[in-house]
Specification:
Helix content: 25-40%
Strand content: 15-25%
Bound molecules: 5'-O-[(S)-butoxy(hydroxy)phosphoryl]adenosine
Structural class: alpha/beta
CATH topology of the domain at 526-657: GMP Synthetase, Chain A, domain 3
Distance between the termini: 38 Å
CATH architecture of the domain at 526-657: 2-Layer Sandwich
Radius of gyration: 25 Å
Number of helices: 21
Largest sheet: 7 strands, mixed
Shape: globular
Number of strands: 30
Length: 658
C-alpha cells in the first residue's frame, strides 16, 4: 500500500470516519491466539477455573490451595497458600529453559547509544543487586523507593526488589523531589534508588543533588543508592549514600529466588485521587502476575519467538510496570526501551526505532498519537513500518480521527488496534478488543476481557442496557488493588462504598451502545487526565495556595486538542499582591511541589471565585467557563456578577494566546 499524506490522507480519514467498525484482517485472525469468541462464554461459565488456568501459565514454587477468598469484601485474597517469586518468573525460568541469550530489551539512549540486554544478563545483574540490597539490610516487606529515568538499571532495581520480597515504590522521573519525599514518607521507605543525573534533551539534569535536601526529614530512610548515569558530580552523605556500581561489584553473584506468599506485596504505586494526598495503590504478587502475563500475551497476541514489542510509556506509571517490565518479561518477550522523548533528537525517532528493531507490536497513548499527527505523516512515512502487525492505545479516550490516523499512517491499514481500558488500581487491562476476534469501533474500548465483568449503571446502581452511566466492575479479579497502603478505610470509601462492598466503582463515566460495547467518557471525580497522566485538582490547588500571598485557588479541566485535558487555575491573590509576572512563578512553584506535568496551561487571576452563599466554590460553573459553555443557573451565587468578569478574562486570555 502506498503511503498517504496531505490531502489524500485527509480524504481517506474522512471516508473511513463513516465506517462503523473494523474487523481484524483475515490473515491476522487466522494466526491469532484468540480466534474464537467462545472463550468469553467459557470464562463466564466458571470464572475461578478460568483464572486458575491463567495462573497455571506461571511457575509456582508451591501451587495454591484456594483460588479466591472473598469472604470479607472488598478485601480479596487470591491463590491462597501459593508461593511464587516474581523475578523467577521474569528471568530464571527463561534462563533455565536455555533462553539466556534471548534479548529482553533493545535499549536505546537519548544519544542513540544502544545496549542489548539479554535475559541472561538481567538474571545476573538482578541477583547481584538483590544481594547488594540485602547487604544494606533490606529484607522482605521493606519498601524501596525507585526514582530513576528510563535506563536499564530501573528494570534491574525493580526485579531485585521483587526477588527479595521488598515492595518497590517507583516514582515517575517527571515528579519533583518534594513529591518523592512525600511518597517515601507515606510508604515508610527504607531505601531510595536514584541517579546522579538524568539525560534530558542532550543535557544532564541533576537528580541526586535535587533530591538530597528533601530526604533529611525522613528518619525511616536508611540508604540512598546512586546509579552513576551521566558522571555528574553529586553530594554523597557518608554512611547513608552508596554507589550502585560499588555495591553490585561487592555483592555475591548468586541469589536464589525464594517463593513468597501469593498475597505478599509486590509494589506500591502512588496515584492521584480526589484529595490532595496521593493514594498508595497496593498490588500483591500471585494475582497481579497472573493478569499481567495473561493480558500481555492475549491482548497483544504475543508470539515471543517472533514479536518485538514496544510499550512507549515510562516505567514510573503502571503501564510501564505491567507492560514494560512484568508482562513482557514473564512472557519471554523481546522489547524496545527508549530513554528519550518522542521528539528527541527528532520527530521520527520512534519510527526510526520501529524500523531498526522490526517492532511488530506498538503500544502508546492517544496524546502521543495526536502529537505525531500534528507533526505530519511525513515523519513516519520516512520509515519502513511494515513489520508492525498490532497497535495499542491506553490512558484516555482516543478520538476516532486519531484512531484512524494511527490505523492508516502507522499501521498501514493492516494492523488491528486494541484500545485498552484499565487503571493503576486494576493492575492490568480490563476492557479491550480481542485483536483476532473483535470488529473494533474507533473510540470504543469495546468489551471486558474474558474473566472480567463490567457494567454501566445508573445512579442507583442498576445496569443500563443502552445509554450513559457509571462504569463498575462486578467481580473481584486477580490483579485488583488489595488496599490503599496503610489506609484501608480510604480504600473502602473510595471504591466500594456506593453500591455495596462487592461493586468496584471505577470513577469513570461510560456509555453502553446498542450492541453492548463500552465507550469510556472520562473521570467523574476531581481528577484531571493530562496527556494520560492522572492529576488531582485538590493537589494542584494545595500547591498553588502554598505560594506566598495567594488566598485561594480553584483548578478545573479544559478540553485540549493535544493533551486531552489541560489544567486551568482560577487564583485569588491576597489584597495588595501585584500579580504582574506572577504566572511563571506560580508555575515554577507547582513544578517544585508536584512536578512539571502539573503546571497549569492557564492561570486566571480574579478577586473572587463563584461561591454559594455558604461559601462553597462552584466548580461546575468554572468548568462551564473554561469550556466556553452556556452558563447554568447562577442565581444561587453569593455574587453573580463574578461570572461575567471571569468569562471575559478567560476569553481575553485565549485571544492573547491565539
Ligand atoms: C484512568 C486511569 C492504565 C494506564 C494508564 C492510566 C483513563 C485509561 C483508557 C482508555 C479511556 C482511559 C480512565 C481511567 N483511561 N485507559 N483506553 N480509554 N480512558 O492509568 O493513571 O491509573 O488512569 O485513565 O479515566 O480511570 P491511571
Amino acid at each position: 500500500m502506498s503511503k498517504l499524506s496531505g490531502d489524500a490522507l485527509e480524504h481517506r480519514l474522512e471516508e473511513l470516519l463513516r465506517t462503523g467498525s473494523f474487523p481484524p484482517p483475515p490473515e491476522f485472525a487466522q494466526n491469532a491466539l484468540w480466534k474464537d469468541p467462545s472463550v468469553v462464554a467459557q470464562a463466564e461459565a466458571d470464572p475461578l477455573a478460568w483464572w486458575e488456568a491463567q495462573a497455571d501459565a506461571l511457575d509456582w514454587e508451591r501451587r495454591w490451595d484456594t483460588v479466591l477468598d472473598w469472604s470479607d469484601p472488598p478485601f480479596a485474597k487470591w491463590f491462597i497458600g501459593g508461593r511464587i517469586n516474581a523475578s523467577y518468573n521474569c528471568l530464571d525460568r527463561h534462563v533455565e529453559a536455555g533462553l539466556g541469550d534471548r534479548v529482553a530489551f533493545h535499549w536505546v539512549g537519548e544519544e542513540g547509544e544502544a545496549r542489548t540486554l539479554t535475559y541472561g544478563w538481567l538474571h545476573q545483574e538482578v541477583q547481584k543487586a538483590a544481594n547488594a540490597l540485602k547487604a544494606l539490610g533490606i529484607g522482605a516487606g521493606d519498601v524501596v523507593g525507585i526514582y530513576l529515568p528510563m535506563i536499564p538499571e530501573v528494570v534491574v532495581a525493580m526485579l531485585a526488589c521483587a526477588r527479595i520480597g521488598a515492595p518497590h515504590n517507583v516514582v515517575f522521573g517527571g515528579f519533583s523531589a518534594e513529591a518523592v519525599r512525600e511518597r517515601m514518607e507515606f510508604s515508610e521507605a527504607k531505601a531510595l534508588i536514584t541517579v546522579d543525573a538524568a539525560r534530558r534533551r542532550g543535557k544532564a539534569a541533576p537528580v541526586k543533588a535535587e533530591v538530597d535536601g528533601h530526604m533529611t526529614s525522613l528518619d525511616r530512610l536508611e540508604h540512598i543508592v546512586v546509579v552513576r548515569n551521566t558522571g555528574t558530580e553529586c553530594p554523597m552523605t557518608e554512611g547513608r549514600d552508596v554507589w550502585w556500581d560499588q555495591i553490585l561489584a561487592a555483592a555475591d553473584p548468586v541469589c536464589p529466588a525464594e517463593g513468597f506468599d501469593a498475597e505478599h506485596p509486590l509494589y506500591v504505586l502512588y496515584t492521584s485521587g480526589s484529595t490532595a494526598k496521593p493514594k498508595g495503590i497496593l498490588h500483591t504478587t500471585g494475582g497481579y502476575l497472573t493478569c499481567a502475563a495473561y493480558t500481555h500475551r492475549h491482548v497483544f497476541d504475543l508470539k515471543p519467538e517472533q514479536d518485538v514489542f514496544w510499550c512507549s510509556a515510562d516505567v514510573g506509571w503502571v503501564t510501564g510496570h505491567t507492560y514494560i517490565v512484568y508482562g513482557p518479561l514473564m512472557n519471554g518477550a523481546t522489547s524496545v526501551m527508549y530513554e528519550g522523548a518522542p521528539d528527541y533528537p527528532h520527530r521520527a525517532i520512534w519510527w526510526e526505532l520501529c524500523e531498526r528493531f522490526g517492532v511488530t507490536i506498538f503500544y502508546t497513548a492517544p496524546t502521543a498519537i495526536r502529537a505525531c499527527m500534528s507533526w505530519g505523516a511525513e515523519e513516519p512515512n520516512k520509515h519502513d513500518l511494515s513489520s508492525l502487525r498490532l497497535l495499542g492505545s491506553v490512558g484516555e479516550p482516543i478520538n476516532p480521527k486519531a484512531w484512524l490516523w494511527y490505523q492508516q499512517v502507522i499501521g498501514g491499514g493492516r494492523c488491528p488496534i486494541v484500545d485498552t481500558w484499565w487503571q493503576t488500581e486494576t493492575g492490568a487491562i480490563m476492557i479491550s478488543p480481542m485483536p483476532g476476534v473483535t470488529a473494533a469501533k474507533p473510540g470504543s474500548a469495546m468489551r471486558p476481557l474474558p474473566g472480567i465483568t463490567a457494567d454501566v449503571v445508573d445512579n442507583e446502581g442498576n445496569p443500563i442496557s443502552e445509554g450513559q452511566g457509571l462504569l463498575v466492575i462486578r467481580r473481584p479479579w486477580p490483579s485488583m488493588l488489595r488496599t490503599l497502603y496503610k489506609d484501608p478505610d480510604r480504600y473502602v470509601e473510595t471504591y466500594w462504598n456506593r453500591f455495596g462492598r462487592d461493586v468496584y466503582v471505577v470513577g469513570d463515566a461510560a456509555r453502553m451502545d446498542a450492541d453492548g460495547d463500552i465507550w469510556i467518557l472520562g473521570r467523574i471525580d476531581d481528577v484531571i487526565n493530562v496527556s494520560g497522566h492522572r492529576l488531582s485538582t485538590a493537589e494542584v490547588e494545595s500547591a498553588i495556595v502554598s505560594y506566598p500571598h495567594v488566598a485561594e485557588a480553584a483548578v478545573v479541566a479544559q478540553s485540549d486538542d493535544l493533551t486531552g485535558q489541560a489544567i486551568v487555575a482560577f487564583v485569588t491573590p491576597e489584597e495588595g499582591l501585584d500579580t504582574d509576572g506572577l504566572d511563571d512563578k506560580i508555575r515554577e512553584h507547582i513544578a517544585e511541589v508536584i512536578g512539571k506535568l502539573a503546571r497549569p496551561k492557564r492561570i486566571i487571576w480574579t478577586h473572587d471565585l463563584p461561591k454559594t452563599r455558604s461559601g462553597k466554590i462552584m466548580r461546575r460553573l468554572l468548568r462551564d467557563i473554561a469550556e466556553g459553555r452556556e452558563l447554568g443557573d447562577v442565581t444561587t451565587l453569593r455574587d453573580p456578577t463574578i461570572m461575567a468578569s471571569l468569562t471575559e478574562r478567560i476569553a481575553a486570555r485565549q485571544h492573547e494566546e491565539d
